[in-house]
Write a structure and sequence with these properties.
The complex is a heterodimer of chains A (168) and B (221). With 168 residues, chain A is an all-alpha fold. Chain A has helices spanning 3-22, 25-41, 52-70, 93-105, 108-118, 124-131, 135-154. Helix content of chain A is 64%, strand content 0%. The longest helix of chain A is centred in the first third of the chain and has 20 residues, at 3-22. Chain B is 39% helix and 24% strand. In chain B, a hairpin with a 2-residue loop joins strand 2 and strand 3. The longest helix of chain B is centred in the N-terminal third of the chain and has 21 residues, at 42-62. Classes of the chains: A mainly alpha (168), B alpha+beta (221). Chain A binds chain B through residues 4, 8, 11-13, 15-17, 19-20, 29-30, 32-34, 36-37, 40-41, 81-84, 92, 95-96, 99-100, 103, 115, 117-119, 121, 139, 143, 146, 149, 164-165, 167-168, and chain B through 1, 9-11, 13-23, 25-28, 30-31, 33-35, 37-38, 41-42, 96-97, 103, 106, 108-109, 112-113, 116.
Chain lengths: 168, 221
């Protein structure tokens, strides 16, 4: 499989991470699209034999940082879009929704580290490489992210799931 | 930094919850805009878009003065909506990043939304047999109210757009007509409540009429 095919194979993974990072679908896919455009044009900088996925996450990280820097506020205009029925979700939807909201409130630096380690199953060293930061910074950001999550989720009313451990 | 077993368990639970939240994204169809490897940079595409837009604005300014390329239909006869359709095509089809407002991955939603805004039941024709797949669509302002704009593309990224508007007078029908607006070729027809314009900058008359026929037949089974 050549590099181009590998990149295409990894698009769903990039979309998952982007959705977790950026939240809303269009914003997430914009992030992926910008990442891919940058990756295609910088492919000659990728060193063959190294981890292509890690390289793409580095590219996405840089695009994300630039996007946030350039972010402008937007106002939603259409508040009565016909919504399609959402497929029914498991009973722990509430807990997951709370978690989603809590992740959204984390500072982006901490959110990135948390998602690379806990969602992308990267080691601390891999996450440090992807974000181009020292491994100690990965660990401290992860610790702070988890601490904040604990506090946010513990502040929820009982019944909606006060502990992450409820989620199987 | 060693974690306690309790912290490890907590991290594992967190990881599982994150997978539960976001793994469904892996199963979603990848939007077309992420699939095609760009053939040119965005800056070039935007520049090309402006050039095409400029050509279309030129059309308004007095294209008919140029004798080198006579329009197939005399300019006076071309309905305003056809010119608007050509401009919409020239404006949006070169877009790399935001060719559509709502992607084909939300086709049902797109069609429901546009139908609601136009006040008519619309359908997005399926043109895969001719090599065109739906990218998505957007709402546009028209001279006669909201307009639906669907965009399709081939694997190579050639795009056609279908502009659909409501007609002021119902029960009107016209045959297929062909018009050429600057760089954009347009087939248009009116079918009772709706006026259609199919635009392309790549396809000649013969190829475009094939697509127009397929669209017409699907909309009038």
């Amino acid at each position: 499989m050549n590099d181009a095919e590998s990149i295409v194979e990894l698009i769903p993974r990039l979309r998952r991470y982007a959705r977790a990072l950026a939240g809303e679908r269009t914003a997430a896919d914009d992030l992926v699209q910008d990442t891919l455009e940058r990756a295609w044009s910088k492919l000659h900088l990728y060193r063959r034999g190294t981890d292509l996925r890690a390289w793409l996450f580095t590219v996405m990280h840089n695009v994300y940082v630039n996007q946030r820097r350039a972010a402008r506020s937007t106002t939603p205009l259409d508040d009565e879009m016909p919504e399609l029925a959402q497929p029914a979700r498991e009973s722990d939807t509430l807990v997951l929704r709370d978690l989603d909201a809590a992740i959204r409130r984390l500072p982006p630096d901490q959110r990135e580290v948390l998602l690379l380690v806990a969602l992308e199953d990267m080691s601390y060293a891999e996450a440090a490489d992807a974000l181009e930061i020292p491994i100690g910074t990965v660990m401290s950001r992860l610790a702070r992210a988890r601490e904040k999550l604990r506090a946010m989720l513990a502040g929820l009313p009982p019944g909606g799931g006060t502990q992450l451990k409820i989620v199987k | 930094m060693d974690n306690t077993p309790q912290e490890d368990a907590e991290l594992k639970a967190l990881s599982q919850a994150l997978h539960q939240l976001y793994d469904p994204v892996l199963g979603e169809p990848v939007p077309a805009r992420l699939h095609s490897r760009p053939r040119r940079g965005r800056a070039a595409a935007i520049a090309a878009g402006w050039v095409m837009l400029g050509l279309c604005v030129g059309t308004f300014a007095g294209w008919q003065l140029r004798a080198s390329r006579p329009a197939v239909v005399a300019q006076a006869e071309v309905p305003v909506f056809v010119k608007r359709a050509a401009i919409a095509h020239a404006t949006y089809s070169p877009e790399v990043r935001h060719p559509v407002e709502v992607g084909a991955d939300q086709e049902q939603h797109l069609v429901a939304w546009l139908s609601k805004r136009l006040g008519a039941q619309l359908r997005a024709p399926k043109l895969e047999a001719l090599g065109y797949s739906l990218i998505g669509g957007r709402l546009l302002p028209g001279d006669n109210g909201p307009v639906a704009h669907f965009m399709y593309q081939t694997e190579k990224g050639r795009r056609i757009t279908l502009y659909v508007r409501t007609e002021a007078t119902e029960n009107r029908e016209t045959a297929f007509r062909y018009a050429s607006e600057g760089n954009v070729n347009v087939f248009y027809w009116i079918d009772r409540k709706l006026g259609y314009a199919l635009s392309s900058a790549d396809l000649g008359r013969e190829d475009l009429i094939k697509v127009a026929n397929a669209v017409y037949q699907q909309l009038n089974p």
